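Z., the sequence and structure:
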Amino acid sequence: MTNDRKRETRDKVIFGGLIIKAGLRKADRAFLLGALIEASRIPLGTAQYRHLHEIGMEAFRADAHDQFRKQGSSVTMK
């Protein structure tokens, strides 16, 4: 497998994971594509972009916190 194909496969797995993490596993493909196209039209740095970015960052932080707790550490993350 070439490096380009490996990178493409990895990207697909990562982006598929994002769809699942967002709770959209059962959404149809047209809806997902429409939502992504609409999101791509939001200019960087706008209030709407920053709002959606913060929602995503909160989801990643929550996931990292959950992963940390699953490891059985007694240290509390803030």
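Residues 73-78 have pLDDT under 50 and may be disordered. Helices lie at 3-21, 29-40, 47-70.

Let me know what you think.
H.
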